[in-house]
Amino acid sequence: EFEGQDYSPSTTALLDNVEEQWRLYCEVLNRDPQHCYETLSIKLLYNFFDWYLSQKVGKDGRKRNGIKKKSSLGTYWKIFRLVFERAMGERIASKLGRSMRKVIGRLAKKHGLNDQARANRIMTIDQLKQHIEETLSTTRKMFEVGEVRILAVLFVLLVAPAGARRRAIARLRFRDIRVVLARDPEGGPHKLLIRFTPKFTKEYLGAKAQNTYPIPETMFDPSLLLSPHVFLLGILFRHQAFRAGSLTSPDQLKKLDICPGELELPLPLREDLNDTYIFRRAVLGTEGYVLSTNEPISEAMMGAWFKRIGELMGLEYSTILYSLRYNAANGFDQSADVSEALRNLVMGHASSEPFRHHYLGREIGADLWGILRGQRPQQALIKQSGSIGHSISKRRPTDLTQEQSASIATHPTIRRLKTALRRLPPRSEAYRDARREINNEKQRLRRELKQSIIHEWTDNQAVDDIERQLQGDSFTKPAVVDTCRPQGPAQKRLLAALTAPLIATLEDQFKRRDNAIDAVSAYCLVQEGCTTRRPRPQSKDSLPKTPSSGSEVSPLSLAILSVYARNKTERPRRCFLCIGQAHCLLPDDPRVDDLIQEFYSSNGLTRHFKRKHLSKMQADDKIECTVCKMPLAHRMHLQRHAFEIHGTVS
């Protein structure tokens, strides 16, 4: 039990995976894995890694991504050495290790592995501001419930100053955050100070000491979009999270003072929230999306959102959260206020080697020629040119057009797979597997086509711009995107509050901050729903005909009338629960049209009702029919009410 190294769970999972691959390879050779360890040779290692690189299918027949880079193969070899040491109790002979360098190089050439490291371009603070503004303003990416959109912004605002790994921030609990009102030693008004202590940091050979990161409030902040205090306090006031029960509104903060002779006034949070994750995902309930009780948003999901927003911004390169960590590391290195030891402590490095090898930008961040010529270095231009947003353009395509997406069906691979599909008996397991393979291949080809178009767009558009300008024409305008819903009132209020101009007086500055916090709290309650690629057209014929009157009746009012069954055989085709949700929204809210849509048939409504509503209910859950203003005591009561009043069969 106490023998061997104390690896973290993630490292142990890597070791177990490599050990399983070794076992499978030994099965191919019809040899005992332990005996292969004992008789390990360079030829056996070469054949094992060659076999591993050739595998195209993984567990349960799923297609494997495979190793694409030479450095990844080197990492796999290092993990194998740990697997060998765990199994044999001793290290691999040093002579064998030296020979593996040639093996890795030869295998990299044989399998066409890329020998270049991942680009480590930084995301500057100005580009982060643009990213946050795009996150808050876009309707081409929906977050199901407004609070998740706010959490997505708060997440990057905590990653950026700490240079933390994404898992460390994603697993923050309320107990890990402390808010205090601090006395400013340089004079002036008291300032809010956030301290957060990530606990789920990268572990190797045991847990690391925890670092606490302070973020003081910028009193006259030129941009509230970059204020983590506004977003965090918006979340805290939305959940009434302060232990002081009377502290319920942000405008009360300016009334608080610090006891004479003391330096801080803590604003403690409720103890029942200690073990609750801050970054929780949305789950679908019977009446729409709600924030889960304690199910965290995965770091992979945060990374996918960050990447998607980067695409909508018009960035040429895929945005990764590590670009914020790269920016922090290089910023700390260039700052006279941060020592090398402090930089290593903040970044979680034992020495400066990781920074030099992986974080120091390979896009040289200095005006070397200007320095050599004795001129004033153009550092701002050099930093911009080496950042991830140097080629940003709103004209850059972000998605495939309908024609481009449809062209995938004519690809030779898809044609071959469809021909093979027609030879299989329908409804058989082989038929379903073949259909799944076709769908997966289509998705892969769409991704490749999209990346190819984005990659080639910069030079192609540059040539077009040059030709147009030389001919006296103007630049082409960004394509009009009509595939998304308009912003709602709460979203417009949020953006207006966060982009409010800087005000000179302290009292007005407090009001500016408090308005932004209130707007954040209010937006947390907004039901966004899922991202819809293209809005479905509203069918006017599907609405019930009503006698003409002097005033026009709204589509929502007509939809409400259409969900009542006039007899036992009538089957309306609208969901009365969804229309009840729409009834609680403002008339101009863009989600109303989605909620009052009519299904193609009553069977479609039944499937929707079971999947979206009944499946989310427990037997004794209570719900209210908003349309009828009638409380329903339990699930069976809901089903009976749905059938008898609204003609919905379940």
From TrEMBL:
Gene3D superfamilies: Intergrase catalytic core. It comes from Colletotrichum tofieldiae. Residues 383-409, 532-553 are annotated as: Disordered. InterPro entries: DUF3435, Integrase-like_cat_sf, Znf_C2H2_type. Keywords: Coiled coil. GO terms for biological process: DNA integration; DNA recombination. It comes from the Eukaryota. Residues 428-455 form a coiled coil. Residues 625-646 form the C2H2-type domain. GO terms for molecular function: DNA binding. Residues 399-409 have a biased composition (Polar residues). Pfam families: DUF3435. This is C2H2 finger domain protein.
